[in-house]
Specification:
mainly alpha; 5 helices; about 85% helix
Length: about 80
C-alpha cells in the first residue's frame, strides 16, 4: 500500500463517529485513554443487559468469540 492509500484509510477510519474519535485519541495522546474506552464499553454492556436482559449478555459473549480466538493464537505463538 502506498502512503496516500494508508493516509486515506486512516482518515476514513477516524471519520467513524465514536470509534474513530477514541482511536484518534489513543493514537495521538497516548495509551492512557484506552481505559476510558474500556469503561465506556463496559457501561454499554451493563446498560444493554439492564435493557434487554441476558440476551444482550449472550450476544456480547458471542461477538467476543473471534477476539478470544485471536488472543489464544497470540498467546500460543508468542
Amino acid at each position: 500500500m502506498s502512503t496516500a492509500t494508508t493516509n486515506l484509510a486512516r482518515r476514513a477510519f477516524y471519520a467513524v463517529p465514536v470509534i474513530g474519535w477514541i482511536a484518534r485519541d489513543i493514537a495521538e495522546k497516548g495509551e492512557e485513554n484506552i481505559y476510558y474506552a474500556l469503561v465506556i464499553a463496559l457501561t454499554c454492556v451493563v446498560l444493554a443487559v439492564k435493557t434487554w436482559g441476558l440476551v444482550a449478555l449472550g450476544l456480547t459473549g458471542l461477538a467476543l468469540v473471534p477476539v478470544m480466538f485471536v488472543v489464544l493464537i497470540a498467546i500460543t505463538l508468542g
